[in-house]
């Protein structure tokens, strides 16, 4: 005898579709429909129903005599049994003994970034994600627990579906395909990645289909991007005033008189007549930032289909992103296709494959700083119009009236449009990341997994420079074209054994593995000129004039092992070890061993805690481990020969010379990290707190050590020195209000203190200099202190100069530099630490409110106590060959009676008195508070959708980089033009045409220096998502 | 198997481990060592800055880079943090490494002794040329004669000038004995004549006129060299390696992948010209312009008086005319210069010979070629150049103008302070020696600073 009962299921005040209902003791069951209703045949008596739904607590309901059930499910606060991905496997959150932060899909699903890590900024303690430049497709700089190396790279290791990839650009993975991102922060969790774990590991796991009905979801977004702030530059009138004064002051210093006419002056001191008596000609001139930036749309469409049976599950997805950049002519288009399939072939054998294909077409410029196009928009002289009267770009047009000003400029900058509109560039990249695996259960408790994985990256780029560039740079420079291509294949073979067994109260999990990985990079470039005209831009139309191909490889063999043990699910112990051998290191020392051990104690499960009702979860964790850093050039240990040709008897005489010093003993940089952490859940896990303290000591640092120049070289790659990072991290997660109205707050805070303990043989400080900007690394200090003079304003008159130590060339209006050592003279000994980019602390806070389908959240992100070097001062803060100036330079020193604001020098084309030296004039406060993100979303009521095939639908508005509170004169204090590593000759980063990377200093040492970076745009996106 | 998987040799660069074995290897290494001349004698290299910018021949105004550091050479305000001075230190020692490694690897190479001698002699010529310049620039310098490791470098203090000169003399003597005579196949390579001429210059600098006269006379008597008839033709970029050339740095030019010279562009005024921007270095002073006697054709052969701008207007400004690459191809803003650079030429030898022997015969050969009255003749401006020493000072200035000799000449003859101070250059004894760069002092605490710098 059966009867039919009906009912509806709700959770958090809403109908729950898809809740699974099972008649206890049978296989019979059903699921709720889109409006949360169900109907089921049950026996007349003793029927008990089991309700289960992801994210909610299971519930048993005794039917009794009821025919209409109303069931409310409670949200599941017992987060301890959530599964967290760790290296080579998963663990329940309960069993995690290291410092791992996990971010699920919900946290970034509506964000408009193309790179998932961009959505994680401000969300994870101990993980400092800074978007150094805002060009589409550019990876952020990620620092996990401080900076662990001085000159080797400090990028974390990316592991995508188990494949470790160095310098991978996560733009290649559509964020909507990502199930979760886990960050392994401490050495014990990262040690399983051994030689590559010292800067932390970011695990990215893509989604898998679920057994059950086939789910289809579709998303469409439309967004608008704009540059929220412009740098205040002089207009034409202000510029002319400054220019005239600078030329006159320079001429006076050279022995002339300010009243001398041009005919009495030498060429470089002459002033255009129009500047003196026809200034109205120029008006306010051109705002080049207006010319270069635009409001740019973005569109993003995505469809995914997933589902499967008990045996086979699948997920297919495709997405297309079409983004114009805020910079003139730049764009970014990306197509991603993913297929993840998993099938149980038999009881014992499961096979699967994940395949992700990404194609990117883009044009990305402006990220190189210095003289790249974004910087040029600041440096360009405001007196010139964007287009001249002939429709050409520049004053170099011999038929333009503007041509008469050319002889007065020391140099002619590229007109920014000559680079964007008369230089045609495009990039096309393709990335395929595939993993194929088989899992075989040898015994019930013993599983063998083997996989073969490959990442194939191809990039092709074309550029064509139109003849004469519309007179934007030169009246004669002819057409030229280049084409380059890169190829990079990385393959990995991985074999692991997993053992998992419960013995009474004891549980043991063990892992052993062997992996082999190899990468080959190839690069080819061809150049041509002699184009007859600009009709055909491919190289066949010209004469090939240059070509080159290069290739390089690395390989790595690894053994790994890990044992997890727990007693009564309360006491946890993990030990892991990895042995790596890499081709990058000298034969004498290529094997490295990276052990770790960690323990956890779930205190809250002890009997003595049962009276403390307020404490729902308390776990203490402690760990110690060793990780390594291998981010050096592929052949860093060998002495390479480079070409250096001479000419003999009228022909090229080929020459070869040693380009570096060999070091056959080159070995890993090793990080020893201790971590102690606490996870605390209070009031039925309404309030969760995670706190960690860590202490890391890096030894044998891979250092491009400056060596005495009399060796013939300036640096040698060697292992030397010691550095410490210690820090504290706090994450608080609070459900402030629960019910039909929900309010949660996620807060995180981290601080890191970095200190150099030991350096080269003599412990001598290491100073790297770019132009005049110096960074100094010395014992007892954090790395890369900005090192220069202290700028104490401007000398108002001669008696002030006479009364204070000064450089002999100083005249009134020149900078006053502090006599730091008090010896009564200004010497090089007066240079001192004038800042450091590392902040005292960083913090982030997300507040989320929800009510009846409405969700509102906003993310604040802040950084306090760091400094930034504005290297643009070189061009915009001091006279530099007639480039434009910051607007605040209008308050310059004019005379003793008009001393200006006391902060800006006397203009002169012959800057003396330390005007050009690196001083605190260049250094600014990098503290900021940012409204990083605001999101509003609304889930359409299911009742609206019940007559449609749509099961649920949501509309949302997402705003990124909404507002920035900062004192920084340029756009954003997170801007830095240098990258954390300069060894990746080839990476999956696109948009590297014309890249300039051959500096004599390690790029990472110059983080925190802004040389004219690409602004981070404000992006507002409207989206709709529907599930079928 | 493990090792074969992990032993990955560089693919796109040769590896030094299996180099330095055959004569072909040593030819390549010696060519690379010769190529260091490009930086040492480059238009913005250490010899150009010392020889010209510190002198009264040239000036420089707006230039690229850290202007104040460049003006310091002009104004005698060099200090230990001058970035140009430091880069010169690096240029010399990097060049010396390339020379020393060839010398060292030759020792153990099992090759024909004659071959080894000839390559070693070439390298020793280069080494002595570099140390000669260095000792005149910085005074005492660390004397590095083999490739050294970083650890060894900490034991290398500065060696007294006398010791450095001793090494220069012995290197040059070896070179003079083992280098070949000039021939059609020695273009751009050191020869016996080159080593002897340089040796003569070193002796003159050491005020050893007897030995100077001896070696210079030997070159003179060898009759391998002669003055070309037309002075101006010496700097035609199609007339290279003339009979007057004793040691000449070779360039091919015309293509970005051939070694090309940048003298013309660098010495062009700092303005945007047809497809390139001039460097504005070594802009000629009126003082040099006025040094020429009336009718001396060398004036207009050496100095350009201006250029025609893109609008066809003549802009008046004086700059070097030698190394003429006006019509040479330009690619992406670079003039791909064809011109060679003569480090030593016969006119220089003749003038040195007069200096060493106090015999004006050789001086007068130079003057005769220029078509100006000979020393001792009625029309000679003896009012201005009353002694042979002054006559030679004048003659060297105009004959060798802008060829990086002037300041070294004034310094050798102890005339730098009296001559330069009257021209507004605050020259003192200590300023005739450049400071040791601060970075060098910081690198190694046993390195000392020169007097007058802190």
Gist of the model:
With 1028 residues, chain A is mostly beta strands. In chain A, β6 (48-52) and β7 (59-62) form a beta hairpin. The longest helix of chain A has 18 residues, at 236-253.
Description:
- The complex is a heterodimer of chains A (1028) and B (454).
- Chain A is mainly β and 1028 residues long.
- Helix content of chain A is 6%, strand content 47%.
- Chain A has a 22-stranded antiparallel β-barrel. Chain A has a five-stranded mixed sheet with strand order 11-16-17-14-15.
- The two termini of chain A are 36 Å apart.
- Mean pLDDT of chain A is 88; it is low at 983-999.
- Chain B has helices spanning 2-6, 23-35, 37-40, 46-53, 67-75, 83-108, 113-138, 150-153, 161-178, 192-205, 209-222, 263-267, 286-289, 298-302, 346-357, 361-370, 388-399, 406-412, 416-421, 438-443, and strands spanning 14-15, 58-59, 141-142, 158-159, 245-249, 283-284, 303-308, 314-320, 330-331, 334-335, 341-345.
- In chain B, the strands form five sheets. Chain B has a two-stranded antiparallel ribbon with strand order 2-6. In chain B, strands 3-4 form a two-stranded antiparallel sheet.
- The longest helix of chain B is centred in the first third of the chain and has 26 residues, at 83-108.
- Chain B is built from 20 helices and eleven strands.
- The model of chain B has no long low-confidence stretch (mean pLDDT 92).
- In chain B, a hairpin with a 5-residue loop joins strand 7 and strand 8.
- The chains are: A mainly beta (1028), B mainly alpha (454).
- Strand 31 (640-643) of chain A pairs antiparallel with strand 1 (14-15) of chain B.
